[in-house]
Amino acid sequence: MENWRQRGQQGLETFGDKLRLYGRWWVARGWNSPRAWRSIAIGVAGLALVLALFRQPLADWLWPETKIQKLLDEGRSALREGRLSAADGHGARELFEAAAALDPDRSDIRNALAQTAQAALAQARRQLQAGDREAAAQSLALARELQAPSADIDPLAAQLQQAVRGHDGIEQLLQQAEAAQAQGRLDDAADAALPLYQRVLALQPDKMQALEGRDEVLSDLLTQATRAADRGDLAAAADLLQRVERYDAGHANLPAVKAVMNAALEQRRQQGERDLARGRLQRAASAFQQVLAAGEDPAARQGLQRIAHAQVQEAVRLAADFQFEAADRALQHARELAPDSAELAAAEQAVQRARQARQSMEVPVSAAERERRLKALLKQLEEAEARQQWLLPPGSSAYDRFKAAQALAPQDPRVRRAAARILPAARTCLDDNLRGNRLRAARTCLDAWQALAPTDPALAAARRRLAQRWIAVGSERLGGGDTAFAEQALAQAQQIDPATPEIAGFSERVRNALR
User: Alpha helix (H) ranges present in 338-397?
Assistant: First the structure.
């Protein structure tokens, strides 16, 4: 600490020595004389005069003009297009005012604002002539804010007041609104209560009679929404809520009615889940569709996909028993719920194959011809097995040959042995491809398994495993930035088993990555 004090003292002494030497130099140069001081004063005065005369050129030289010029160009473009003022800051007024904030003394900016004021006056005249009084009032207010001459504003303001007090004046609008409210015509037309109250408030935002009337109408609409939700008409309730929010998103009763609506939606979702679990597919579909009619809902959407999956399985089972009318109805229901499902396309092919098999059974053939055809089909089946062609290519896969052989001789031991051989092979095929992460090949094996044994209880677990593997691989590729593959993986998982728990989280990750 003592060293610091010593150093500080030495520094002050050195600075004092230098200051005394500088003073002697100043005196030696003769700059402490009155004449020298007069010269300095004259120089300072001259510099001040130069700065006063050339302040703007110097400012223009020192201050970059790029930002100001850009704002002026954009403002003039907006003025030409008639965008005099805009909430997003890209109106002529906002752009010119931003330029003025950077340099308030520029005459071209002041002229631009004056031109905007004149454009607002001209616009007000046109709107008043067209009978659009609300728009004219807004344009006139803009001209007044931009300090247009009173001599131009006052005549227009008088015309506007006269128009308001005339045929469609405020009092008459209020009477019309109250009459419409009493008749129950709340917001279904331009002459209904709410639109009329809004017209009054556009002219006089603080008109208490209009504010109270609008609040009463909105409360009536919310009461209707509550009743609609209570009776299960979720689409009507959602529509009423949206209409109220458009007029007043901060209405005091809105949160309570939204809570009632959410409870009704949850109740309907749960009813759909219960019906689906009990096999009441039509009732379950109706419940989920009612939820979706009120707005997009991921849980209800997945519920419909699961119903479509169950309908597809039912169609395949019915076609295997040659109940084609019932199979077609099940396919139609599935098509309405999930028209783009790959599982649906496979089921349609299975039903078509069953029809062909039934037709071949109806053609009378001799025992020798039947045996010849059966042997050929069994040989082709074995060849397709060796090539691992379980479902593809269509018409020559192992499954196609098996169904054709089964149609010719359903009780033949060789056909039964082929079925017993193909089904385990399809399961093994699925396991092998899963281990190697050959997911598209695994999907083909799963489809073969499902076609051979559509009611096999082990199918559900197999579908879940394949869907989870798609999600795992898709998640890994998404971490590497491959969003295209992640989208494909998500679609595959949703088609294979839409009830897979991991789908929701993976779907959210994919959506976030695509933003």
Answer: 342-362, 367-386
Question: What pLDDT, on the 0 to 100 scale, is given for residue 8?
Answer: 46
How large is the greatest C-alpha to C-alpha distance in the chain, in angstroms? 141
| Side chain identity, residue 446 | L
Helix, strand, coil shares, percent, the chain, to 5: 80, 0, 20
Query: Are the C-beta atoms of 105 and 128 separated by less than 8 Å?
Result: no
First-to-last C-alpha distance (Å) of the chain:
61
Buried b vs exposed e over 458-476: b needs ≥16 C-beta within 10 Å? ebeebbbbbbbbbbbbbbe
- Assigned token pair, 367: 């025992």
Which tens digits make up the pLDDT trace of 235-246? 888 888 988 888
Burial (CB < 10 A; 0-12, 13-18, 19+), residue 131, is exposed
Pick 46 or 489 by higher pLDDT. Answer: 489
Helix ranges (DSSP H) in 278-341: 281-293, 298-320, 324-337
167's tokens: 């045929």
Q: What is the pLDDT of residue 50?
A: 47
Alpha helices in 436-458 (DSSP H): 439-452
* Residues near 495 by beta carbon (within 8 Å), at least 6 away in sequence: 341, 342, 343
Closest C-alpha among 295, 310, 219, 301 to residue 262: 295
Answer yes or no: is pLDDT of 77 > 60. yes
394 cis-preceded (ω within 30 degrees of 0): no
Distance between CA atoms of residues 198 and 6, nearest Å: 81
Sequence-ordered list of residues with C-beta below 8 angstroms from that of 273, at least 6 positions apart, any chain? 284, 303
Instruction: Fill in the DSSP letter of residue 131.
Output: T
Token output for 29: 């140069």
pLDDT band at 1 (very low <50, low <70, confident <90, very high): very low
Whether the model pTM is above 0.85: no
More confident residue, 123 or 200: 123
Residue from 254, 260, 264, 259 nearest 232 by CA: 264
pLDDT tens, position by position, 235-290? 888 888 988 888 888 888 889 999 999 999 899 988 888 887 777 888 888 898 88
Q: Give the pLDDT confidence of 145-170 residue by residue, as tens digits.
A: 898 898 888 888 888 777 666 545 67
